[in-house]
Amino acid sequence: MTHAPTNLFDLFRSRFPSDRSKPFLTTEKGRIISYEALEDISGHMAACLRDHDVQKGDRVAVQVDKSPEALCLYLACLRIGAIFIPLNTAYRTGEIGYFLSDAEPVVFICRPEDEKAFAPIAEGLPAVRHCLTLSVDGQGSVMEALARTEKRAIETAPTNPDDLAAICYTSGTTGRSKGAMLSHKNLGSNADVISNFWGFSAEDVLIHALPIFHVHGLFVATHCVLCHGASMIFLPKFEAETVISLFDKATVLMGVPTFYTRLLQSPNLTPAHCAPIRVFISGSAPLLAETHTAFETVTGQKILERYGMSEIAMHCSNPLHGDRVPGTVGPVLPGSAVRICDDNGQPLGVNEIGVLEVKGPNVFQGYWRMPEKTKEEFREDGWFITGDIAKIDEKGYVHIVGRAKDLIISGGFNVYPKEVELLLDSLDSVVESAVIGIPHPDFGEAVVAIVIKEADSPKVTEASLQDAVKDQLARFKQPKKVIFLEELPRNSMGKVQKATMRDHYKDLFKK
Known about the structure:
Blueprint: H1 8-13, E1 23-27, E2 32-34, H2 35-51, E3 59-63, H3 68-80, E4 83-86, H4 93-103, E5 107-110, H5 115-123, E6 130-133, H6 141-148, E7 164-170, E8 178-183, H7 184-197, E9 205-208, H8 215-226, E10 231-234, H9 240-245, E11 252-255, H10 257-263, H11 271-274, E12 279-282, H12 289-299, E13 304-309, E14 313-317, E15 337-341, E16 354-359, H13 371-377, E17 384-392, E18 398-403, E19 408-410, E20 413-415, H14 417-425, E21 430-440, E22 444-453, H15 462-469, E23 481-484, H16 498-504
Parallel strand pairs: 1-10, 3-4, 3-5, 5-6, 9-10, 9-11, 11-12, 12-13, 22-23
Antiparallel strand pairs: 1-2, 7-8, 13-14, 15-16, 16-17, 17-18, 19-20, 21-22
Protein backbone atom coordinates (compact mmCIF):
# COMPACT_ATOMS: atom_id res chain seq x y z
CA MET A 1 0.00 0.00 0.00
CA THR A 2 1.43 3.40 -1.00
CA HIS A 3 0.92 6.54 1.03
CA ALA A 4 0.64 10.10 -0.23
CA PRO A 5 3.77 12.15 0.47
CA THR A 6 3.60 14.14 3.69
CA ASN A 7 6.56 16.45 2.96
CA LEU A 8 5.30 19.16 0.63
CA PHE A 9 8.39 18.96 -1.56
CA ASP A 10 7.84 15.25 -2.12
CA LEU A 11 4.27 16.01 -3.17
CA PHE A 12 5.56 18.49 -5.75
CA ARG A 13 8.32 16.18 -6.95
CA SER A 14 5.80 13.37 -7.49
CA ARG A 15 4.06 15.69 -9.98
CA PHE A 16 7.18 16.82 -11.86
CA PRO A 17 6.98 16.02 -15.60
CA SER A 18 8.69 12.85 -16.79
CA ASP A 19 10.78 15.04 -19.08
CA ARG A 20 12.66 17.07 -16.49
CA SER A 21 14.07 19.36 -19.18
CA LYS A 22 10.65 21.03 -19.38
CA PRO A 23 10.78 24.67 -18.25
CA PHE A 24 9.47 25.30 -14.75
CA LEU A 25 9.95 29.04 -15.13
CA THR A 26 11.19 31.50 -17.71
CA THR A 27 12.28 34.96 -16.64
CA GLU A 28 11.56 38.22 -18.44
CA LYS A 29 15.16 38.17 -19.73
CA GLY A 30 14.79 34.67 -21.14
CA ARG A 31 16.54 32.66 -18.43
CA ILE A 32 15.03 29.18 -18.13
CA ILE A 33 14.94 27.04 -14.99
CA SER A 34 13.96 23.50 -15.94
CA TYR A 35 12.42 21.03 -13.52
CA GLU A 36 15.76 19.24 -13.48
CA ALA A 37 17.54 22.49 -12.55
CA LEU A 38 14.88 23.26 -9.95
CA GLU A 39 15.55 19.98 -8.19
CA ASP A 40 19.32 20.38 -8.52
CA ILE A 41 19.53 23.98 -7.27
CA SER A 42 17.10 23.48 -4.39
CA GLY A 43 19.00 20.35 -3.37
CA HIS A 44 22.31 22.21 -3.44
CA MET A 45 20.75 25.01 -1.37
CA ALA A 46 19.38 22.46 1.09
CA ALA A 47 22.92 21.11 1.59
CA CYS A 48 24.15 24.69 2.07
CA LEU A 49 21.51 25.36 4.74
CA ARG A 50 22.52 22.18 6.53
CA ASP A 51 26.12 23.41 6.50
CA HIS A 52 24.85 26.60 8.15
CA ASP A 53 23.43 24.69 11.13
CA VAL A 54 19.81 24.52 9.89
CA GLN A 55 18.04 21.39 11.11
CA LYS A 56 14.50 20.10 10.83
CA GLY A 57 12.14 22.45 12.68
CA ASP A 58 14.54 25.41 12.59
CA ARG A 59 13.37 28.68 11.12
CA VAL A 60 14.87 30.46 8.10
CA ALA A 61 13.74 34.08 7.69
CA VAL A 62 14.05 35.60 4.22
CA GLN A 63 13.58 39.19 3.04
CA VAL A 64 14.87 39.32 -0.53
CA ASP A 65 13.73 40.44 -3.96
CA LYS A 66 11.87 38.09 -6.25
CA SER A 67 14.22 35.76 -8.12
CA PRO A 68 14.45 32.10 -9.18
CA GLU A 69 17.05 31.58 -6.44
CA ALA A 70 14.63 32.90 -3.81
CA LEU A 71 12.04 30.37 -4.94
CA CYS A 72 14.63 27.58 -4.82
CA LEU A 73 15.48 28.68 -1.28
CA TYR A 74 11.87 28.08 -0.24
CA LEU A 75 11.93 24.58 -1.73
CA ALA A 76 15.30 23.91 -0.06
CA CYS A 77 13.73 24.63 3.32
CA LEU A 78 10.90 22.22 2.60
CA ARG A 79 13.40 19.52 1.63
CA ILE A 80 15.18 19.59 5.00
CA GLY A 81 12.06 20.19 7.09
CA ALA A 82 13.01 23.75 8.00
CA ILE A 83 10.32 26.40 8.48
CA PHE A 84 10.36 29.13 5.83
CA ILE A 85 9.50 32.67 6.93
CA PRO A 86 8.93 35.06 3.99
CA LEU A 87 9.13 38.74 4.94
CA ASN A 88 7.72 41.60 2.91
CA THR A 89 10.54 43.53 1.24
CA ALA A 90 8.94 46.76 2.45
CA TYR A 91 9.57 45.98 6.12
CA ARG A 92 12.09 48.26 7.79
CA THR A 93 14.40 48.00 10.80
CA GLY A 94 11.79 48.24 13.55
CA GLU A 95 9.67 45.54 11.96
CA ILE A 96 12.63 43.28 11.10
CA GLY A 97 13.85 43.50 14.69
CA TYR A 98 10.50 42.26 15.94
CA PHE A 99 10.27 39.38 13.46
CA LEU A 100 13.79 38.12 14.19
CA SER A 101 13.36 38.31 17.95
CA ASP A 102 9.97 36.60 17.77
CA ALA A 103 10.73 33.84 15.25
CA GLU A 104 14.34 33.25 16.34
CA PRO A 105 15.54 31.96 12.97
CA VAL A 106 18.87 30.18 12.73
CA VAL A 107 19.53 31.95 9.42
CA PHE A 108 18.37 35.37 8.22
CA ILE A 109 18.78 36.24 4.54
CA CYS A 110 18.37 39.80 3.27
CA ARG A 111 19.27 41.91 0.26
CA PRO A 112 22.92 43.04 0.04
CA GLU A 113 21.87 46.69 0.20
CA ASP A 114 20.05 46.05 3.50
CA GLU A 115 22.88 44.17 5.19
CA LYS A 116 24.37 47.27 6.83
CA ALA A 117 21.06 48.11 8.53
CA PHE A 118 19.88 44.60 9.37
CA ALA A 119 23.06 42.67 10.22
CA PRO A 120 23.55 44.44 13.60
CA ILE A 121 19.96 43.49 14.53
CA ALA A 122 20.59 39.84 13.63
CA GLU A 123 23.98 39.76 15.34
CA GLY A 124 22.40 41.08 18.53
CA LEU A 125 20.14 38.05 18.79
CA PRO A 126 21.76 34.82 20.04
CA ALA A 127 19.36 32.58 18.06
CA VAL A 128 20.43 34.03 14.69
CA ARG A 129 23.69 32.29 13.86
CA HIS A 130 24.11 33.48 10.27
CA CYS A 131 23.11 36.63 8.37
CA LEU A 132 23.44 36.08 4.61
CA THR A 133 22.54 38.06 1.51
CA LEU A 134 20.86 37.30 -1.82
CA SER A 135 20.38 39.82 -4.62
CA VAL A 136 17.75 39.96 -7.34
CA ASP A 137 20.35 38.85 -9.92
CA GLY A 138 21.39 35.78 -7.94
CA GLN A 139 24.46 37.22 -6.24
CA GLY A 140 25.36 37.67 -2.58
CA SER A 141 26.86 35.64 0.24
CA VAL A 142 24.24 32.88 -0.16
CA MET A 143 25.56 32.13 -3.63
CA GLU A 144 29.17 32.43 -2.46
CA ALA A 145 28.43 29.90 0.28
CA LEU A 146 26.69 27.71 -2.29
CA ALA A 147 29.82 27.68 -4.41
CA ARG A 148 31.78 26.39 -1.41
CA THR A 149 29.18 23.75 -0.55
CA GLU A 150 29.77 20.26 -1.85
CA LYS A 151 26.89 18.94 -3.91
CA ARG A 152 25.53 15.82 -2.29
CA ALA A 153 22.40 13.76 -2.19
CA ILE A 154 19.83 15.28 0.13
CA GLU A 155 17.12 12.99 1.39
CA THR A 156 13.84 14.79 1.91
CA ALA A 157 13.21 15.11 5.62
CA PRO A 158 10.31 12.92 6.75
CA THR A 159 7.51 15.09 8.10
CA ASN A 160 4.22 14.56 9.83
CA PRO A 161 1.20 16.26 8.23
CA ASP A 162 1.05 18.87 11.00
CA ASP A 163 4.77 19.72 10.95
CA LEU A 164 5.27 23.36 10.03
CA ALA A 165 6.33 24.32 6.52
CA ALA A 166 6.06 28.09 6.88
CA ILE A 167 5.23 30.95 9.21
CA CYS A 168 3.57 33.95 7.57
CA TYR A 169 3.37 37.10 9.63
CA THR A 170 0.15 39.09 9.51
CA SER A 171 -0.52 42.47 11.06
CA GLY A 172 -1.93 42.39 14.56
CA THR A 173 -4.85 44.35 15.97
CA THR A 174 -2.79 45.21 19.05
CA GLY A 175 0.15 46.42 16.98
CA ARG A 176 2.01 43.13 17.36
CA SER A 177 2.26 41.01 14.22
CA LYS A 178 1.12 37.40 14.45
CA GLY A 179 2.92 34.47 12.85
CA ALA A 180 0.39 32.19 11.17
CA MET A 181 1.76 28.63 11.35
CA LEU A 182 1.10 26.66 8.15
CA SER A 183 1.82 22.94 8.01
CA HIS A 184 2.81 20.68 5.12
CA LYS A 185 -0.76 19.34 5.17
CA ASN A 186 -2.31 22.82 5.21
CA LEU A 187 -0.40 23.90 2.12
CA GLY A 188 -0.40 20.57 0.29
CA SER A 189 -4.13 19.92 0.63
CA ASN A 190 -4.95 23.45 -0.48
CA ALA A 191 -2.59 23.29 -3.45
CA ASP A 192 -4.28 20.13 -4.68
CA VAL A 193 -7.79 21.47 -4.24
CA ILE A 194 -7.34 24.87 -5.90
CA SER A 195 -5.17 23.67 -8.79
CA ASN A 196 -7.78 21.05 -9.69
CA PHE A 197 -10.72 23.38 -9.07
CA TRP A 198 -9.20 25.93 -11.45
CA GLY A 199 -8.47 23.28 -14.07
CA PHE A 200 -4.68 23.36 -14.07
CA SER A 201 -2.83 20.90 -16.30
CA ALA A 202 0.69 20.29 -17.57
CA GLU A 203 -0.17 22.43 -20.60
CA ASP A 204 -0.73 25.59 -18.57
CA VAL A 205 1.60 28.58 -18.53
CA LEU A 206 1.00 31.03 -15.70
CA ILE A 207 1.99 34.69 -15.87
CA HIS A 208 3.54 35.19 -12.42
CA ALA A 209 3.76 38.92 -11.68
CA LEU A 210 3.06 38.69 -7.93
CA PRO A 211 5.55 39.09 -5.08
CA ILE A 212 6.74 35.86 -3.46
CA PHE A 213 6.79 37.06 0.15
CA HIS A 214 3.00 36.76 0.17
CA VAL A 215 0.64 33.76 0.30
CA HIS A 216 -0.81 34.65 -3.12
CA GLY A 217 2.45 34.58 -5.07
CA LEU A 218 4.48 32.06 -3.06
CA PHE A 219 1.84 29.45 -2.28
CA VAL A 220 -1.27 29.89 -4.44
CA ALA A 221 0.36 30.71 -7.78
CA THR A 222 3.58 28.70 -7.49
CA HIS A 223 1.93 25.63 -5.97
CA CYS A 224 -0.66 25.42 -8.75
CA VAL A 225 2.20 25.20 -11.26
CA LEU A 226 4.19 22.65 -9.24
CA CYS A 227 1.18 20.40 -8.61
CA HIS A 228 0.69 19.81 -12.34
CA GLY A 229 4.17 20.05 -13.80
CA ALA A 230 3.09 23.26 -15.56
CA SER A 231 5.23 26.29 -16.43
CA MET A 232 5.27 29.97 -15.60
CA ILE A 233 6.61 33.25 -16.92
CA PHE A 234 8.32 34.75 -13.88
CA LEU A 235 8.17 38.55 -13.91
CA PRO A 236 9.86 40.83 -11.36
CA LYS A 237 6.72 42.96 -11.05
CA PHE A 238 3.47 43.81 -12.75
CA GLU A 239 3.55 46.13 -15.75
CA ALA A 240 0.35 46.18 -17.77
CA GLU A 241 1.85 46.41 -21.27
CA THR A 242 4.43 43.71 -20.53
CA VAL A 243 1.75 41.37 -19.24
CA ILE A 244 -0.52 41.98 -22.24
CA SER A 245 2.40 41.28 -24.58
CA LEU A 246 2.77 37.84 -22.96
CA PHE A 247 -0.85 36.74 -23.30
CA ASP A 248 -0.11 34.81 -26.48
CA LYS A 249 2.48 32.72 -24.60
CA ALA A 250 0.32 31.98 -21.54
CA THR A 251 -2.97 30.48 -20.37
CA VAL A 252 -3.52 31.85 -16.83
CA LEU A 253 -3.09 35.19 -15.08
CA MET A 254 -3.35 35.56 -11.31
CA GLY A 255 -3.45 39.03 -9.87
CA VAL A 256 -4.77 41.49 -7.33
CA PRO A 257 -7.60 43.89 -8.29
CA THR A 258 -5.04 46.61 -9.07
CA PHE A 259 -3.73 44.45 -11.94
CA TYR A 260 -7.13 44.48 -13.57
CA THR A 261 -7.83 48.19 -13.09
CA ARG A 262 -4.49 48.96 -14.73
CA LEU A 263 -5.06 46.48 -17.55
CA LEU A 264 -8.36 48.23 -18.26
CA GLN A 265 -6.47 51.49 -18.83
CA SER A 266 -4.58 49.98 -21.79
CA PRO A 267 -5.87 50.31 -25.36
CA ASN A 268 -4.20 46.95 -26.05
CA LEU A 269 -6.60 45.06 -23.78
CA THR A 270 -8.81 43.52 -26.46
CA PRO A 271 -10.73 40.26 -26.87
CA ALA A 272 -8.20 39.13 -29.46
CA HIS A 273 -5.23 39.73 -27.17
CA CYS A 274 -6.99 37.99 -24.25
CA ALA A 275 -8.18 34.97 -26.22
CA PRO A 276 -5.24 32.65 -25.27
CA ILE A 277 -5.88 33.15 -21.54
CA ARG A 278 -8.30 30.50 -20.31
CA VAL A 279 -8.83 32.09 -16.88
CA PHE A 280 -8.12 35.43 -15.19
CA ILE A 281 -8.05 35.03 -11.38
CA SER A 282 -8.23 37.82 -8.80
CA GLY A 283 -7.65 37.83 -5.05
CA SER A 284 -5.90 39.34 -1.99
CA ALA A 285 -8.40 42.21 -1.88
CA PRO A 286 -12.05 42.72 -2.84
CA LEU A 287 -12.67 43.09 -6.57
CA LEU A 288 -15.18 45.83 -7.24
CA ALA A 289 -18.26 44.67 -9.14
CA GLU A 290 -17.67 47.59 -11.54
CA THR A 291 -14.19 46.27 -12.36
CA HIS A 292 -15.59 42.78 -12.96
CA THR A 293 -18.27 44.17 -15.30
CA ALA A 294 -15.90 46.52 -17.12
CA PHE A 295 -13.38 43.72 -17.73
CA GLU A 296 -16.05 41.47 -19.20
CA THR A 297 -17.32 44.30 -21.41
CA VAL A 298 -13.83 45.03 -22.78
CA THR A 299 -12.46 41.48 -23.10
CA GLY A 300 -15.44 39.17 -23.23
CA GLN A 301 -14.04 37.22 -20.25
CA LYS A 302 -15.22 37.09 -16.64
CA ILE A 303 -12.64 37.41 -13.88
CA LEU A 304 -12.70 34.54 -11.38
CA GLU A 305 -12.66 35.96 -7.86
CA ARG A 306 -11.78 33.87 -4.82
CA TYR A 307 -11.28 34.33 -1.09
CA GLY A 308 -8.46 33.49 1.26
CA MET A 309 -6.15 34.86 3.91
CA SER A 310 -2.73 34.06 5.35
CA GLU A 311 -4.24 31.76 7.96
CA ILE A 312 -6.22 29.61 5.52
CA ALA A 313 -4.68 30.11 2.07
CA MET A 314 -7.68 29.68 -0.30
CA HIS A 315 -11.12 28.78 1.04
CA CYS A 316 -13.80 29.96 -1.42
CA SER A 317 -13.86 30.49 -5.15
CA ASN A 318 -16.17 31.33 -7.97
CA PRO A 319 -16.35 28.32 -10.32
CA LEU A 320 -14.22 27.71 -13.38
CA HIS A 321 -17.34 26.50 -15.17
CA GLY A 322 -20.56 28.11 -14.00
CA ASP A 323 -21.74 31.48 -12.73
CA ARG A 324 -19.01 33.88 -11.64
CA VAL A 325 -21.06 36.40 -9.72
CA PRO A 326 -19.65 39.93 -9.38
CA GLY A 327 -19.29 41.00 -5.77
CA THR A 328 -19.06 37.45 -4.43
CA VAL A 329 -16.16 35.10 -3.73
CA GLY A 330 -18.14 32.02 -4.75
CA PRO A 331 -18.97 28.84 -2.82
CA VAL A 332 -16.64 27.08 -0.38
CA LEU A 333 -13.93 24.93 -1.97
CA PRO A 334 -14.26 21.12 -1.87
CA GLY A 335 -13.26 19.54 1.44
CA SER A 336 -13.72 22.71 3.49
CA ALA A 337 -16.67 24.35 5.21
CA VAL A 338 -18.03 27.84 5.96
CA ARG A 339 -20.71 29.24 8.21
CA ILE A 340 -22.00 32.64 9.27
CA CYS A 341 -22.36 33.24 13.01
CA ASP A 342 -23.43 35.94 15.39
CA ASP A 343 -21.03 37.37 17.98
CA ASN A 344 -21.76 34.43 20.29
CA GLY A 345 -20.89 31.81 17.69
CA GLN A 346 -24.48 30.84 16.92
CA PRO A 347 -24.97 29.93 13.23
CA LEU A 348 -27.18 32.25 11.18
CA GLY A 349 -29.43 31.51 8.21
CA VAL A 350 -29.36 32.20 4.49
CA ASN A 351 -28.61 35.84 3.63
CA GLU A 352 -28.19 36.76 7.28
CA ILE A 353 -25.12 38.91 7.91
CA GLY A 354 -22.59 37.90 10.54
CA VAL A 355 -18.99 36.80 11.06
CA LEU A 356 -17.52 34.32 8.58
CA GLU A 357 -16.10 31.20 10.22
CA VAL A 358 -14.21 28.45 8.39
CA LYS A 359 -13.04 24.91 8.86
CA GLY A 360 -10.95 22.50 6.77
CA PRO A 361 -7.54 20.87 6.24
CA ASN A 362 -6.20 24.19 4.94
CA VAL A 363 -6.83 26.06 8.21
CA PHE A 364 -3.58 26.96 9.96
CA GLN A 365 -2.16 25.45 13.16
CA GLY A 366 -2.40 28.63 15.21
CA TYR A 367 -0.29 31.72 15.90
CA TRP A 368 3.41 31.30 16.64
CA ARG A 369 4.06 31.59 20.38
CA MET A 370 0.62 33.13 20.96
CA PRO A 371 -1.48 30.37 22.57
CA GLU A 372 -3.95 32.82 24.08
CA LYS A 373 -4.46 34.60 20.75
CA THR A 374 -4.90 31.25 19.04
CA LYS A 375 -7.49 30.17 21.59
CA GLU A 376 -9.31 33.48 21.15
CA GLU A 377 -9.58 33.07 17.37
CA PHE A 378 -10.93 29.49 17.38
CA ARG A 379 -14.28 28.20 18.59
CA GLU A 380 -14.22 25.20 20.90
CA ASP A 381 -15.52 23.05 18.03
CA GLY A 382 -12.54 23.99 15.84
CA TRP A 383 -14.02 26.72 13.64
CA PHE A 384 -11.66 29.62 12.87
CA ILE A 385 -13.16 33.11 13.25
CA THR A 386 -11.95 35.06 10.21
CA GLY A 387 -13.14 38.49 11.40
CA ASP A 388 -14.73 39.15 8.00
CA ILE A 389 -18.39 40.14 7.91
CA ALA A 390 -20.29 38.12 5.32
CA LYS A 391 -23.47 36.37 4.23
CA ILE A 392 -24.17 33.20 2.26
CA ASP A 393 -26.92 33.36 -0.37
CA GLU A 394 -29.38 30.71 -1.58
CA LYS A 395 -26.86 29.29 -4.06
CA GLY A 396 -24.13 28.96 -1.42
CA TYR A 397 -22.13 31.91 -2.72
CA VAL A 398 -20.26 33.83 -0.03
CA HIS A 399 -20.54 37.63 -0.05
CA ILE A 400 -17.91 39.55 1.94
CA VAL A 401 -19.81 42.65 3.05
CA GLY A 402 -17.40 44.16 5.54
CA ARG A 403 -14.47 43.58 7.82
CA ALA A 404 -14.23 43.38 11.55
CA LYS A 405 -11.41 45.04 13.49
CA ASP A 406 -11.08 47.93 11.01
CA LEU A 407 -8.71 45.99 8.78
CA ILE A 408 -7.37 47.96 5.79
CA ILE A 409 -6.29 46.15 2.62
CA SER A 410 -3.92 48.36 0.64
CA GLY A 411 -2.46 46.99 -2.57
CA GLY A 412 -3.38 43.48 -1.43
CA PHE A 413 -1.55 43.77 1.91
CA ASN A 414 -3.21 43.83 5.31
CA VAL A 415 -2.79 46.92 7.48
CA TYR A 416 -4.21 46.99 10.99
CA PRO A 417 -4.79 50.60 12.07
CA LYS A 418 -3.74 49.96 15.66
CA GLU A 419 -0.12 49.34 14.64
CA VAL A 420 0.06 52.70 12.84
CA GLU A 421 -1.87 54.50 15.59
CA LEU A 422 0.48 53.28 18.33
CA LEU A 423 3.46 54.64 16.43
CA LEU A 424 1.82 57.99 15.67
CA ASP A 425 0.62 58.39 19.26
CA SER A 426 4.17 57.87 20.52
CA LEU A 427 5.43 60.91 18.60
CA ASP A 428 6.02 64.25 20.29
CA SER A 429 3.11 66.70 20.03
CA VAL A 430 0.63 64.06 18.85
CA VAL A 431 -2.28 63.81 21.29
CA GLU A 432 -4.25 61.09 19.52
CA SER A 433 -4.71 59.50 16.14
CA ALA A 434 -7.22 57.39 14.26
CA VAL A 435 -6.19 55.49 11.14
CA ILE A 436 -8.74 54.54 8.49
CA GLY A 437 -8.82 53.08 4.98
CA ILE A 438 -10.17 55.27 2.19
CA PRO A 439 -11.01 54.02 -1.35
CA HIS A 440 -8.09 54.53 -3.72
CA PRO A 441 -8.09 53.96 -7.50
CA ASP A 442 -4.75 52.08 -7.53
CA PHE A 443 -4.42 50.46 -4.10
CA GLY A 444 -8.04 49.57 -3.36
CA GLU A 445 -7.68 51.37 -0.05
CA ALA A 446 -5.17 53.94 1.12
CA VAL A 447 -4.04 54.47 4.71
CA VAL A 448 -5.19 57.83 6.05
CA ALA A 449 -4.31 59.19 9.50
CA ILE A 450 -6.62 61.56 11.35
CA VAL A 451 -4.46 63.32 13.95
CA ILE A 452 -5.08 65.54 16.97
CA LYS A 453 -1.93 67.49 17.75
CA GLU A 454 -1.01 69.60 20.73
CA ALA A 455 -1.91 73.27 20.53
CA ASP A 456 0.89 75.55 19.37
CA SER A 457 2.75 72.79 17.50
CA PRO A 458 3.42 74.42 14.12
CA LYS A 459 6.28 72.02 13.39
CA VAL A 460 3.91 69.05 13.35
CA THR A 461 2.84 68.82 9.71
CA GLU A 462 1.70 66.12 7.34
CA ALA A 463 5.22 65.89 5.93
CA SER A 464 6.87 65.72 9.37
CA LEU A 465 4.63 62.86 10.52
CA GLN A 466 5.10 60.94 7.29
CA ASP A 467 8.85 61.37 7.62
CA ALA A 468 8.79 60.23 11.27
CA VAL A 469 7.24 56.85 10.44
CA LYS A 470 8.96 56.01 7.17
CA ASP A 471 11.81 54.04 8.80
CA GLN A 472 9.50 52.21 11.21
CA LEU A 473 6.72 51.05 8.92
CA ALA A 474 6.58 49.26 5.60
CA ARG A 475 5.65 51.65 2.83
CA PHE A 476 2.19 50.15 2.31
CA LYS A 477 1.38 50.90 5.98
CA GLN A 478 2.50 54.53 5.86
CA PRO A 479 -0.28 57.16 5.73
CA LYS A 480 -0.74 58.51 2.24
CA LYS A 481 -2.61 61.43 3.73
CA VAL A 482 -2.60 63.04 7.19
CA ILE A 483 -5.62 65.12 8.22
CA PHE A 484 -5.55 67.32 11.33
CA LEU A 485 -8.70 67.82 13.43
CA GLU A 486 -9.34 69.52 16.74
CA GLU A 487 -11.11 66.40 18.04
CA LEU A 488 -12.13 62.96 16.84
CA PRO A 489 -15.84 62.17 16.37
CA ARG A 490 -17.08 59.85 19.14
CA ASN A 491 -20.32 58.17 20.14
CA SER A 492 -22.05 58.50 23.53
CA MET A 493 -19.79 55.79 24.94
CA GLY A 494 -16.66 57.67 23.87
CA LYS A 495 -15.77 55.27 21.04
CA VAL A 496 -14.10 56.85 18.01
CA GLN A 497 -16.50 56.75 15.06
CA LYS A 498 -14.26 55.50 12.27
CA ALA A 499 -17.22 54.65 10.04
CA THR A 500 -18.29 58.30 10.15
CA MET A 501 -14.81 59.45 9.14
CA ARG A 502 -14.56 56.85 6.36
CA ASP A 503 -17.83 58.12 4.94
CA HIS A 504 -16.83 61.79 5.27
CA TYR A 505 -13.49 61.29 3.45
CA LYS A 506 -14.61 58.57 1.00
CA ASP A 507 -13.94 60.80 -2.03
CA LEU A 508 -10.50 61.97 -0.87
CA PHE A 509 -8.62 60.11 -3.64
CA LYS A 510 -11.17 60.34 -6.41
CA LYS A 511 -9.66 61.62 -9.62
